[in-house]
Amino acid sequence: MNATIKFIFLSHIAVYSLAVSAQRGLEGIVVEHYYVSDKNDASDEQSGMTLKEGSTTYRIYVDLAPDYVMQVVYGSPLNPLKIETTTTFFNHQDRGNAMGTDISVNRLTENTLALDSWITIGAACGTHHGVLKEEDTDGSLIGGSKNDGGSAKVKGGLLINNTEQTKIPLSDADGMMLMKPERIVPFGLLFDEFKFTTESNALITDNGAWSVPGGVKGPTSSNRVLIAQLTTDGELTFELNLQIRNSQNGNVERWVAKNPAWDEYTNPSLTRVRPAVKQTVKSQKVN
Questions:
Q1: Tell me: the pLDDT tens digits for 243-252?
Q2: pLDDT tens, 33-48?
Q3: 119-123, 153-157, 181-185: which range is least confident on average?
Q4: Which parts of the chain fold into alpha helices (H)?
Q5: Distance from C-alpha of 131 to C-alpha of 118, rounded to nearest angstrom
Q6: How far, in Å, CA of 102 to CA of 154, rounded?
Q7: Residue 144: CB partners within 8 Å, gap ≥ 6?
Q8: How many CB atoms lie within 10 A of CB 250?
Q9: How far apart are CA 272 and CA 239, in angstroms?
């Protein structure tokens, strides 16, 4: 499979794009540093793909105003959807899935499955919604003594690394809250092919989407909805296009990464670019 994945874009998106509200419901995109892998995590061989030490697991949340729900993540010819890394995305070949809803909570204690890369709208597994670790108040089901230690049977289990970036250990808060996920509907996506492979470094589509037509509200009062978990040892960049809906009046808003049309909005947080490379300029002797 090619490293760049493309899909057939169906006309259904237009159905959800008939009304655009003057009220703005997107407060921004939140990128959480969920976990950073250490040498013990990298020792596991059960995933079928090398997890490099120092890989970061990111979670991307859509931060919505109180009355809004998240409906669609999409790419179109005028606004392609792009999620990329400078290296590759970690994909758990043995037990992982392309969608968060398809991962069983009962298996998240196995090796490094909890670090798999996937997309979603709300769900972090088949029974729980994703939530920022700082908002997670019900403890953890994964990491440390709850983990099986992987192929090396590491004493004390895997997923125990704690860094300044991640702030809260996974063994204290797993970023999951018990809440039945909504079924995710693909537009032009073939689930059997829609996977991060061992060669994947980009998810790009100008004709595809994933959606929960009725919309998803965040599990806490902050109303942040998880749309992806991504693990990579490279630099993560993205250009996101979203559709959200006001649950009170039914009005719809479309938000694009750039070049908004008259019926669209944009926000700087929808685009994440590579940091500028600092150049060292050598001093020259002046005669």
A1: 999 999 999 9
A2: 999 999 999 999 988 8
A3: 181-185
A4: 12-15, 39-42
A5: 15
A6: 27
A7: 156, 157, 159, 160, 169, 170, 171
A8: 9
A9: 7
Closest to 9 in 3D by CA, of 213, 269, 187, 235: 187
Structure tokens at 22: 């003057």
pLDDT at residue 94, as a whole number:
79
If you average pLDDT over residues 197-222, what whole number do you get? Answer: 87
CA 173 to chain CA mean position, Å: 18
Cα dihedral sign for 226, 228, 231, 232? Answer: negative
Contact (Cβ atoms closer than 8 angstroms) between residue 124 and residue 223 = no
Closest by CA to 88, choosing from 113, 40, 55, 119, is 55
In the numeric block, the tokens 């808060």 are attached to 173
* Token pair in block for residue 162: 């704690």
SS (H, E, C) 254-274: EEECCCCCCCCEECHHHEECC
**Among 170, 59, 182, 176, residue whose Cα is nearest residue 128:** 176
Pair of tokens at residue 38: 């250490």
pTM, entire model = 0.89
Per DSSP, the three-state class of 151 is coil
